[in-house]
Amino acid sequence: MISVEQHLDRILSTVTVIPPFELGVLDAQGCILAADVQARGSLPGFTNSAMDGYAVHASDIATASAESPVTLPVVNDIAAGNTKPWSLASGQTMRIMTGAPMPHGADAVVPVEATDGGVVRVQIRERRSVGAHVREVGEDVEAGNVVLRRGTLLGPGQIALLAAAGIARVRVVPRPRVVVISTGDELVEVGRTPGFGQIVDSNSVMLTAAVTAVGATPFRVGGVPDDARTLMETLEGQLVRADAIITTGGVSMGAFDTVKEVLSRVGTMRFDKVAMRPGMPQGFGVLGDERVPVFTLPGNPVSALVSFHVFVAPALRAMAGRPEPSYPPGYVPAVAAEPFGSVEGKMEFVRVILDDDRARLAGGQGSHMLGALAAADALAVIPEDVTEVAAGDELMCLPLLGREGM
Amino acid sequence: MISVEQHLDRILSTVTVIPPFELGVLDAQGCILAADVQARGSLPGFTNSAMDGYAVHASDIATASAESPVTLPVVNDIAAGNTKPWSLASGQTMRIMTGAPMPHGADAVVPVEATDGGVVRVQIRERRSVGAHVREVGEDVEAGNVVLRRGTLLGPGQIALLAAAGIARVRVVPRPRVVVISTGDELVEVGRTPGFGQIVDSNSVMLTAAVTAVGATPFRVGGVPDDARTLMETLEGQLVRADAIITTGGVSMGAFDTVKEVLSRVGTMRFDKVAMRPGMPQGFGVLGDERVPVFTLPGNPVSALVSFHVFVAPALRAMAGRPEPSYPPGYVPAVAAEPFGSVEGKMEFVRVILDDDRARLAGGQGSHMLGALAAADALAVIPEDVTEVAAGDELMCLPLLGREGM
């Protein structure tokens, strides 16, 4: 029997960051930058107006006030998108829109609100200093400078900055492609009615959803019967598109545990009893020339989802180049709302409903109990040496993926 | 000038929950159930073994102990997926695997660890009570009972429960389909090099990413020139696939503000100055027979992203049938790490970097400053009546979407 930490350490010391790949900036959403990115162009790319108003020589309106406005001729309109460079002579103005290029010579903008809005001549009622409402070329970003560092997570603001700085494609750590396979002669596909002795393959849809929720890309193979040859062929066939493979079932003490039987022949695979409940029978190793990580999770659905949260999700984050966050989906503190027992010598993952930070049991805790699992918000993590939790005790909880919502 | 709350109230009292739609369970990930769902079958669907071991009549092994084991003949193997109903006579055992159907007459399972693992006859070293390691039909979920209530967010566990209970398709509130349009003659498409007076259309990629980050489905139209007819035709053409439309640009005080010009003719659209910085010029209304909500956001990128967080994201959540969460992406508390000023009479959204709960300025706060925006984790929300924030002051922060990561 090994500890949860030992099994996780073995996994995290085996998996490696996926080799970088070039993607379009929008497709790179949620990915980690694999290299520093330099701006192709400056931002702004040309000196422009920050307001709708009038471009002026500030010295021409130095005396302007509400009581004694300055009137200037309006010799041009400059709209955003105007691609012609203009020049503004002293004693004149040009009407200018937000984002439009400043005419050469002009050094300030008077907002339209400080004028009479005239189109032939304009009465200016307030003075403005040199530089007022002017955005200087390069004041946000200078061409050639690093705009985003390697390791940055690309969200909406980062993608906008890249696009604006002239970057259409970036090298990122791609989302891990994760093949999801269930094993068992008892499985029927979702939508079919199981006969006596059969069950719907809910594990592969659950783990496919979990892979999506963690930000990776799932490929659901679905159910494979308990046949060594079929399973091996399936695994070999999927290796080509997999950064990782997850199987469920066939790793326990049974006489027909095909996953264990097939993969035990592979050198790097190791099957262990891990001191946890649920989820004791775990297997992990790498497969093929590319050393694709394979997680063989137990077949009970609650065990499988707990194993995913505890072992697979951290591994996928590491493969995606992310630092493990301290905040969701990391552990969060809570308080037990009711007493419950816990088995000694095993780390127990108790399905709980969180009401703010108060955690109550989500119902039946059997490892086959999907009803209670579906009611839960989080897993309360009870250490090996704790056998009794009293109401009011502090707990660490692992929020269930895909429950935070939009 | 209206307040942020007034504008948001108007939006939230106008938008409605999108009509329910039937989706496959996996496609419904992240959606809200539109109706209670009843189980088609029971869970478990048949009484089965919770362990790999031996099915017995508990009365036959009542005296079993390590010192005085009970030996019984093994008359059959029952694997998971065995679809034949067997019967177990008293005085006999059958080897049984986890999830395999219990033979008629058997009332307990002895785990293989408590035996010698025999295949012809087995020595049983521990007694087990009636019901031990047996999962009774329907003990998790009974056929016909409600398994998930209307309003439930579908994550991995919920999807697994639905699939297991025989549900392949569910009525949910679909993800809002959101059309994203930028306006302006100055825009060039991502990947093209802007000429003098031009900029890359970064707003539409930013807001497309933001729509994705909030869990809705974006359709990026991209840049549309400042031409009333083109804009109106684009809007009309997109209405058919839109649950909402977002535009950027053309809503300020400019002489060529096409969005304002075109949509002002439409009865329900209203353009307001909202007491906020950045993001003052806002427009909102509904368009077409389907009363599609239209958000006309300002064209400065920082203003656009702030407006998305403050007005559009809550509206999309409401349209998706979600209760507004109190937890991400809601407001979180933080402490100012440094002093900064704030304009009086406007709610200010300051781009900050969070180091745990300590918030420091992310750099230049101009509404065109993408560099500082891309460095930020959150928007610190400074109320209208606050003009000075001191180091150590408590702040409320709105985390930026898509920055939490995997």
From TrEMBL, chains A, B:
<protein>
    <recommendedName>
        <fullName>Molybdopterin molybdenumtransferase</fullName>
        <ecNumber>2.10.1.1</ecNumber>
    </recommendedName>
</protein>
<dbReference type="Pfam" id="PF03453">
    <property type="entry name" value="MoeA_N"/>
</dbReference>
<comment type="similarity">
    <text>Belongs to the MoeA family.</text>
</comment>
<dbReference type="GO" id="GO:0006777">
    <property type="term" value="P:Mo-molybdopterin cofactor biosynthetic process"/>
</dbReference>
<dbReference type="InterPro" id="IPR005110">
    <property type="entry name" value="MoeA_linker/N"/>
</dbReference>
<dbReference type="Pfam" id="PF03454">
    <property type="entry name" value="MoeA_C"/>
</dbReference>
<dbReference type="InterPro" id="IPR036688">
    <property type="entry name" value="MoeA_C_domain_IV_sf"/>
</dbReference>
<keyword id="KW-0808">Transferase</keyword>
<dbReference type="InterPro" id="IPR005111">
    <property type="entry name" value="MoeA_C_domain_IV"/>
</dbReference>
<keyword id="KW-0479">Metal-binding</keyword>
<dbReference type="InterPro" id="IPR038987">
    <property type="entry name" value="MoeA-like"/>
</dbReference>
<keyword id="KW-0501">Molybdenum cofactor biosynthesis</keyword>
<dbReference type="GO" id="GO:0061599">
    <property type="term" value="F:molybdopterin molybdotransferase activity"/>
</dbReference>
<dbReference type="InterPro" id="IPR036135">
    <property type="entry name" value="MoeA_linker/N_sf"/>
</dbReference>
<dbReference type="InterPro" id="IPR036425">
    <property type="entry name" value="MoaB/Mog-like_dom_sf"/>
</dbReference>
<feature type="domain" description="MoaB/Mog">
    <location>
        <begin position="179"/>
        <end position="318"/>
    </location>
</feature>
<keyword id="KW-0460">Magnesium</keyword>
<comment type="pathway">
    <text>Cofactor biosynthesis; molybdopterin biosynthesis.</text>
</comment>
<dbReference type="GO" id="GO:0005829">
    <property type="term" value="C:cytosol"/>
</dbReference>
<keyword id="KW-0500">Molybdenum</keyword>
<dbReference type="Pfam" id="PF00994">
    <property type="entry name" value="MoCF_biosynth"/>
</dbReference>
<dbReference type="GO" id="GO:0046872">
    <property type="term" value="F:metal ion binding"/>
</dbReference>
<dbReference type="InterPro" id="IPR001453">
    <property type="entry name" value="MoaB/Mog_dom"/>
</dbReference>
<comment type="function">
    <text>Catalyzes the insertion of molybdate into adenylated molybdopterin with the concomitant release of AMP.</text>
</comment>
